[in-house]
Amino acid sequence: MPSWNVHTAHVERLLAEDGAEALGISDVNSFLFGNYVPDIYVGWMVKVDERIDYMTTHWSKANYIPTPQVDRFWLTHVRGGCDDLTIGTLCHLICDRVYNAMTRSWAQAHDIKLSDEIRIKKQADFSHFGHSLNISMLVEPTDELLRQAAAFPQYRIEEKDARAAIEVARDIVTTNSDAEDPADAHYKMLDQAFFDETFEVAHRCMRSTLLAFARGI
Fold first, then answer.
1. Domain hosting residue 36, numbered range
2. CA pair distance 66, 160, nearest whole angstrom
3. How far apart are CA 192 and CA 140, in angstroms?
4. Dmax of the chain from CA atoms?
5. Are 93 and 40 contacting, i.e. CB atoms less than 8 angstroms apart?
6. Considering the domain boundaries, does residue 125 fall inside one?
7. Quick one: which of 10, 42, 82, 149 is 20 to 30 A from 182 by CA?
8. Mean pLDDT in each 10-residue stretch from start to end of the chain (217 residues)?
9. Count: domains in the chain
């Protein structure tokens, strides 16, 4: 899965190119936080007391490189209107789906069988790519964000867990300035051309979804 530096970079580009209003976003802070939500209770990035299975938080079926079922989340929690945190969560799922689906397509094109080894190499390459990105947006633990977190329709996000996630996100963004030059990234399997294309595809998918959401579709 893309790390939070990748998700942050996508949010920054969406807002820079279209602006929050055109994308149907009222509270940018809560929207940005929503782009981290599916990873919080998995327990890999944030220390939580009770974990939720990755396949549940990401609306996926178990396999080596799972692809979130974005349409199910849209129909269940977005269609008809939702808050900014929830639409941000949808963007996280879209992003993960695109990056993982394109990795699966790459493996198929290169006649590579999916396995734990391939998954580990994929994740290492995702990490290298994430550290090549220039990001700056920080989440703030506002009352509105904490309210939306507690009201998240799939499961309640406790205040202490939201605050812990915000601290993790802040650390990721502030230390990502030590970014690697993409040309110097030592990819184990994929390459910069793959990530350039995948970033564009994910951006277009998120942008078109947000524009549709803004129009009330």
1. 4-111+137-172+197-214
2. 29
3. 32
4. 50
5. no
6. no
7. 42
8. 93 98 98 98 96 97 89 96 98 97 94 87 92 96 98 98 98 81 74 97 98 93
9. 1
